[in-house]
Design a protein that fits this description.
By secondary structure, the protein is α/β, with parallel strands linked by helices. It has 2 domains: about 190 residues, Leucine Dehydrogenase, chain A, domain 1 (Rossmann fold, 3-Layer(aba) Sandwich); about 160 residues, NAD(P)-binding Rossmann-like Domain (Rossmann fold, 3-Layer(aba) Sandwich). Helix content is about 45%, strand content about 15%. The protein contains 17 helices and 12 strands. It has a 7-stranded mixed β-sheet, with helices on both faces. Helix 1 packs antiparallel against helix 2, helix 5 crosses helix 17 and helix 8 crosses helix 15. The two termini are about 25 Å apart. Bound molecules: NADPH dihydro-nicotinamide-adenine-dinucleotide phosphate and (2Z)-2-iminopentanedioic acid. (2Z)-2-iminopentanedioic acid (2IT) binds next to strand 3 and helix 15.
Length: about 450
Amino acid sequence: MEYIKEALNHIKEKDVNEKEFIQAVEEVLNSVDVIFAQNPQYQNKGIIERLVEPERIIQFRVPWEDDQGKIHVNRGFRVQFNGVLGPYKGGLRFNPTVNLSIMKFLGFEQVFKNALTGMPIGGGKGGSDFDPKGRSDNEIKRFCNSFMTELYRHIGPDIDVPAGDMGVGSKEIGYLYGHYRRLRGTSERGVLTGKGLGYGGSLVRKEATGYGVIYFLNEILKRINKSLSKQRIVISGSGNVAIYTAEKAKEYDGHVIAMSDSKGYIIDEQLDLDVVKLIKEVKREGLSLYPQISGHGEYYVGSLYDHLGLKYDIAIPCATQNEIDIKRAKNIYDSSCKIVVEGANMPNDNDAIMYYQEKGIIFVPGKASNAGGVATSALEMSQNSMRYNWTFTEVDEKLRTIMQDIHQQCLMAIEAYKLNEYDYVKAANIAGVSLVINAMISQGDY
Ligand code: NDP
Ligand code: 2IT
């Protein structure tokens, strides 16, 4: 459609250096032409132009002192992408690769993901090119304090509510919240999510993204009259999302046979998740330690998806963006894999996604399958507002219902728009984008 093509070309010209952002916009816009075909009046309302332009971007300097007394300066970001459904909501990523393009792609994806959760949250993302690896606790604390010294004036429980993402877990959220509280002189627990359980955090938030991925996967398996039991599963990453995806998969008798980190991967028919947790969550070391500590399994340097000859049914990439290109997608197909579900944000590039669709591999984009993390963050906000905590079972049940509902929204879009039976890409994009557009139109022309 001409309107979409023009909007896309405009973004490609204007944001020419923002590779990841353009990739994310392309994936979404190429899915939603039916919405614009049915609603030609949207064109002179500038709907796409508004969808792809963040409401606000804040970029700031983050100076901090290391343990030797040397001052470092990092770059901090917060992209407040779209607030039409509620306070901007999305994680903070501390990783040396962070730049404006990555912040904008993550913020853009977050808008539609958050819409799908049905919770009252807009979309945003933030972070810094700070590398927490090898830094002491005190260095991380000083960095977090400095980061919050600027960020605090832009956030609030009804304004913008950050949480964790890569490199930011409950420890960092604790330091950030402590500093926010001191700077503002108020408690305002709902300003951040992913907090510790002792001061306003929600049960299940830590596990939520991974658990949610498996709840979504279970819905797909039901559709094809299968269950997770005995399915051979590979999971890339061994951080927050990967670990709790593996935990829930095992609970359903799934057979997790491989995991990875930024340096290498392990293959083990008797994969011991407790050892992975010990290495990654407690020791904060590399998976190369795994065979020695567990007494079994193999460790290899490189990418899990370059490994040839391994047979599996389901792949769940939970590491980082663009981990899988067409070459790796072909390896995944050659491994007899039938289903790819994204735990990470945009771990597959657009060529890989097209390849899966050509080959009949069922593929689910992260904005549908990994929405359980942010959904549970929204449940944390609800509990903070009520000044009351739900039990583990109560939160877990709400999370499961939300994931089932997102799957149902996909099925409804597949039916309403006569999409391919398993086109979860178009379905999730149409469902998410429609919710945002409807609210934008209702709220007027800004
Ligand atoms: P973590 O920092 O906890 O874990 C990241 C994992 O990815 C680590 O195992 C890390 O290895 C690995 N990794 C990092 N860079 C690379 C790379 N270049 N190649 C291969 N592996 C790499 O992050 P999360 O688990 O929180 O996030 C993972 C993904 O899930 C991200 O895309 C994030 O945006 C997304 N996500 C996170 C949510 C959350 O609630 N945390 C919610 C929804 C999505 P190493 O240990 O060696 O650094
Ligand atoms: O990508 C994501 O959805 C997250 N990192 C979770 C964000 C949140 O606000 O919990």
